Amino acid sequence: MAEQIGNLTFGIIKPDAVRNGRAGSIIQRITDSGFKLRGMKLIHMTLKEAEGFYAVHAERPFFGELTEFMSSAPCVVLALEKAGAVKAWRDLMGATDPAKADEGTIRKEFATSIGENAVHGSDSEENARIEIAYFFSQLELI
Ligand code: CMP
Fold first, then answer.
1. Least confident interval from 1-15, 77-91, 116-130
2. Which residues lie below 8 Å from residue 65, measured CB to CB, with a gap of 6+?
3. Distance CA 132, CA 136 (A)
4. Pocket residue to mutate for ligand 1, from 92, 96, 105, 110, most atoms within 8 A of Cβ
5. 30-76 confidence digits (pLDDT tens)
């Protein structure tokens, strides 16, 4: 891997945004906001892979809906670098519920509901490491 200046975080452009042709616009917003792309690929998760990724939410009532949605169509997985990357990416995404997302955030512009909310982001540096390792091999990180 090349020299790392900032921290890394993990992101997903979810199936709703990819299906609606929004992936390019969202990647543009990410790079315009000063993130470097360290890993990026289009994948189509199996239900089992989505269940593994969201295992922490396994007891939640929306787990079935969430994992079926995440495995319903392709998504883009991202390893993003910036100083304070975890917070910076969460700030750019906006609130989980798009109805509560601030003006100028990705979810305000692209999300349609709390389930189909366009993007995912890690909530801590530790989870960012775990989530990047779930989807990327060392060779795929630039
Ligand atoms: P994400 O950041 O990917 O992490 C967990 C996801 O669960 C979250 O974004 C939402 O898309 C989804 N989620 C949270 N609450 C609900 C809910 N009440 N109904 C459906 N999906 C939800």
1. 1-15
2. 115
3. 6
4. 96
5. 999 999 999 999 999 999 999 999 999 999 999 999 999 999 999 99
Cα–Cα dist 21/15, whole Å: 10
Q: Which pTM value belongs to this model?
A: 0.96
Rounded CA gap, 67 and 65, in Å? 6
Place of tokens 């189909």: 116
Q: Are 40 and 142 in contact (CB under 8 A)?
A: no
Whether residue 120 lies in the annotated active site: yes
DSSP 37: E
Is 37:8 a contact under the CB 8 Å cutoff? no
- Ligand 1 and 122: CB distance under 6 A: no
Inter-CA distances, 25 with 31, 32, 33, 71, Å:
10, 10, 12, 22
List domains and CATH numbers for the chain: 2-44+75-140 (3.30.70.141)
